[in-house]
Task: inverse folding
């Protein structure tokens, strides 16, 4: 997996440079881009490989984030990696339940159902006083990062890098396995796949569980990153738009597509956030997504693959 090794090398260079120059912004920016790689890859497992477009990204992302809030209140000394695993498990279970109830729907009807899920989860969390409800909750991160010393954001950066490697390795393994071929059969023609003996419902449940679980894991470190979490930030439209736009821009047919899209769009958004305003983030992702859907429907990776052939 040479590209994953290149990604680790780049992230390692950012980490070393950030520590050398004492720049916290490098870690904050790197964390955001890596988070979008995880989120875009998680969406692509269901939306790209299987062809089921999920508009409920923020539901799974926020379940992971608010799981951390709950665990931090109940067990303050719990290590963050364990919180991430629990948050991912919770989101994965919700993904399985949602899949069982909605995957008999197809096309736009499934997408509308996932959008309704996000609204339901946001309503429940907004009215749950234990996690702060509408007023939000503060999560104080430690001053010193465990194991490595330095600022805690450096630890968050390394945690997200490790999660990114795990998710990319999983996506690449799926793509080249019998499971991936089953996903592709569902995406190309679900009726024909079912008639050919492909266990479509079981495969779709696996896809929703994995996709939801990884989205929850991407959101679990968020409370320690922002230190204040409310429904407006946990269910931010940026996450939903970027999670869909980045795989579409990079290419949904390959595990590499969400990586390319996240680095391109995430890096551009961070630059514009510093130079102009964060309000343009959704506009940038939307304009690029429309442009690539029209000009290069297969995304950047698909465009290069077609030229290579």
Result:
């Amino acid at each position: 997996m040479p590209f994953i090794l290149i990604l680790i090398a780049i992230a390692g260079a950012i980490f070393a440079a950030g520590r050398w120059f004492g720049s916290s912004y490098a870690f904050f920016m790197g964390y955001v881009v890596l988070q979008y790689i995880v989120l875009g890859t998680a969406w692509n497992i269901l939306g790209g490989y299987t062809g089921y477009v999920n508009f409920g990204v923020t539901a799974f992302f926020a379940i992971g984030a608010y799981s951390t809030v709950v665990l931090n209140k109940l067990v303050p000394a719990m290590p963050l990696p364990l919180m991430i695993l629990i948050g991912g498990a919770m989101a994965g279970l919700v993904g399985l339940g949602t899949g069982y109830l909605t995957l008999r729907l197809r096309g736009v009807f499934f997408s509308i159902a996932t959008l309704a899920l996000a609204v339901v989860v946001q309503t429940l969390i907004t009215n749950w006083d234990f996690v702060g409800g509408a007023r939000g909750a503060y999560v104080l991160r430690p001053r010193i990062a465990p194991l490595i010393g330095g600022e805690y954001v450096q630890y968050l950066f390394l945690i997200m890098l490790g999660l990114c490697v795990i998710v990319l390795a999983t996506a690449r393994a799926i793509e080249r396995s019998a499971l991936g071929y089953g996903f592709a059969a569902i995406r190309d023609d679900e009726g024909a796949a079912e008639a050919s003996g492909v266990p479509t419902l079981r495969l779709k449940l696996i896809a929703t569980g994995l996709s939801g679980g990884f989205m929850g894991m991407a959101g679990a470190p968020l409370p320690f990153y922002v230190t204040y979490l409310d429904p407006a930030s946990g269910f931010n439209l940026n996450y939903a738009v970027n999670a869909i736009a980045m795989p579409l821009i990079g290419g949904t047919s390959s595990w590499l597509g969400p990586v390319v899209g996240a680095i391109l769009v995430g890096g551009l958004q961070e630059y514009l956030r510093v130079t102009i305003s964060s309000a343009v983030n959704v506009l940038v992702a939307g304009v690029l997504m429309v442009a690539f859907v029209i000009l290069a429907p297969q995304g950047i990776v698909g465009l290069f693959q077609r030229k290579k052939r």
User: Anything to note?
Assistant: The chain has one domain: 2-234. DSSP finds 15 helices and two strands in the chain. The longest strand covers residues 137-138. The two ends are 22 Å apart (CA to CA).
